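Handout, section B. The chain below has 381 residues.
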Amino acid sequence: MKFLVCLLLVSSVAWSSDPTLVEEIVAKVNGDIVTRGDLDHSRQELLGALQQQGATGAALQKEFAEHSKDILRERIDQLLLIQKAKDLNINVDSEFSKYQADLQKQSGIADPEKFQEYVRQQTGVPFEDWRNDTKNSMLQRRVISQEVGSKMTVKHEDVQKYYDEHKTEFVRDERVFLREILISTEGKDPAGVAAAEKKAKDLVARARKGERFPEMARDNSEAITAKNMGELGGFKKGELNPIIEGLIWNQPKGYITDPVRVDAGFNIFKVEEHQKAGQADLSDVEQEITEKLYAPRMQPKMREFLTQLRETAFLEIKPGYIDTGAAPNKSTAWADPGELKAQTVSKDKVVAYKQRHKKLLWAVPVPGTSTGETTSSSSLK
């Protein structure tokens, strides 16, 4: 929740089966609306997220009060970004199709109808809503990347300055970074084990000929790390299984092992990086420093962009509700501020006006996904 780039706090409304249910409109954003139900549900999600992070008592109340004041702002931000994506003719259909296919493969559910039911069970919302939520999140990210991120640069001299002033941050322990592919033998008879070993050897041969290991891990590995392209992270000496450590520790970047027999099956490891002990060279940490400098500059630039969108938008906000991201000198007065009667709209009309949203990160995984994959983490120790 540090800023919108890292966390788009969005919401969905729990609808009654009564089609005549009315919702109070609290804001109009061009052709879309925000209802009181949207904001109430966002508050519930915020409270749940804070509780999951371990906040309790007075600390929970403080965090909730601090973040809940921005709920209307964030909802307006989301609608403006989605509208801008449409203005720019941004299409994320192919991106979504690939993402859905990856999730379907990870879940092991080939049948489309069964996968849709699986999504509903995991997320608590109909598949169509999940699809719309996911696409809307992708649209927002694309707009931010295209209209804000692509126009930001971090100069090399700024990177050099940061490196010179923070050299102690870049004193490294020796560490090896690995990716893996696991071909499972669990529940297999001798013929199945032999087939698994052959497959593992074939994958090693393909990888050594130059085929991209991350994609091979994603498409073939039966370890849970397949979701992350086989990435295992970094290990200091003594943190790995001694047999595996002996195979890879003195090997250069890019080295690929032969299949290693472990309890779960056959493991293949690739040395992604071998970080030497001592002061890291600037060339080795330039990307890391660039990201450190980029992130804090992104938030104000994005708020500036969202303010510009507000300045040209049709915005009306009901008295008693505050947009903490309001554009200076921009009137958002309700059409009839003297009217005391709350303006309402039917459920059907709300659905026609807007897409319901769900809280999403940059990546939009199915929460709680458990595919029954086998992890080889135990083989590393």
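Note. The chain has two domains: 22-152+288-353, 174-276. Compare this with the example in section A.
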